[in-house]
Amino acid sequence: MANLYTKTGDKGTTALVGGSRVAKSDLKVECYGTVDEAISALGFARTQTSSEFVGEMIHKVETRLFAVGAELAADEKGLKKLMGLKPTGSEDELSFVPVTEKDIAYLEGVVDKITSLVGKQHEFVVPGVNASSGALHVARTIVRKAERRVVELSSTEEVRPVVQKYLNRLSDLVFALARYEEEMPAREELCERVIAAVKETLGMSDSNKQFNLETLQGMALRAQEKARELGVPCVFAAVDDGGNLVLFQRMEGSLLISMDVAQGKAFTAMSMKMPTDEVGKLCQPGQPFYGLENSKPGKFVLFGGGFPFVVDGKVVGGIGVSGGTAEQDMEIARYAMA
């Protein structure tokens, strides 16, 4: 490897890809330098997150930003050379893949996915909720600065519009990732609190409760007992921690639609680790889970009657009751679990 210092820039100039030299204060240098700054900020943000999803996303956009920086750092001769290069996969040969509309579509898809999880933004975000989101907000502002520099550069020389567009979408993605980092820890804490509250309310003791067929059959019988008392024929369903149906019982006279609804409640309570009525509250407009039901149409049920099955503090399954009103289904389910 060559020495870190070359002394060729001691007079305030630097070489572009292609060989020509420009002042270090040149707008072109400012553009790719700011992109480099954004890469570094994203790298720091990656060290602050514990989310595998966020870490992978940051790594992917860092690698694409190298392509953006290389393109901005090229003179006319260098740009022709870069655009003529084809990825070879060989470690001994330079590989350059410029950003395209496909890269932009990918960013938009991820932004849409995150928005479906955390909900739409309805107010200003004040950075600093936690270290990871704070670092991402810093990176976002640097990406925005890079975009502004590129817009300025495009007024004096030709820049591919897709480069400017990519930086614009990237800032949206980094903002979405920051919101994801802000929301997810709060949700995990909420799940733990709800589980603890449910256990306390229902008198659930992990020491004498097991998730097995015998236990579930006993719960189904109790559900039918309470349903007869209320005069509401119901369906009882239970799923394991993989969402697989492990027990299903339907009382005579119950509605056919209750068969799907009961399974949906059990699945929702298990996958979200909280009662379905609580999930429903968090799916209202402006709330963190707004739009959740659209991610798995027919699978998520957002009204009462579904509860997680907790053993030793861990959700190992879920049960669902359907047949009456949401309040009646919740009463039957609580009676079954007590």
Strands ordered across the widest β-sheet: 4-3-6-5
Straight-line distance between termini: 70 Å
**Biggest beta-sheet profile:** 4 strands, antiparallel
Residue share in helix: 55-70%
Please indicate the percent range of residues in DSSP E strands (runs of 2 or more).
Answer: 5-15%
The shape, in one word, is elongated
Oligomeric status of the shown chains? single chain
Number of strand elements: 6
Give structural notes:
- The chain is α+β, with helices and mostly antiparallel strands and 338 residues long.
- Helix content is 56%, strand content 10%.
- The chain has ten helices and six strands.
- It has helices at 27-48, 52-72, 76-84, 101-118, 131-154, 161-202, 213-230, 257-272, 276-282, 326-337; strands at residues 13-15, 21-23, 235-240, 245-250, 306-311, 314-322.
- The strands form two sheets. It has a four-stranded antiparallel sheet, with helices on both faces. A two-stranded antiparallel ribbon has the order 1-2.
- β5 (306-311) and β6 (314-322) form a beta hairpin.
- The chain is elongated.
- Residues 90-94 and 203-208 have low confidence and may be disordered.
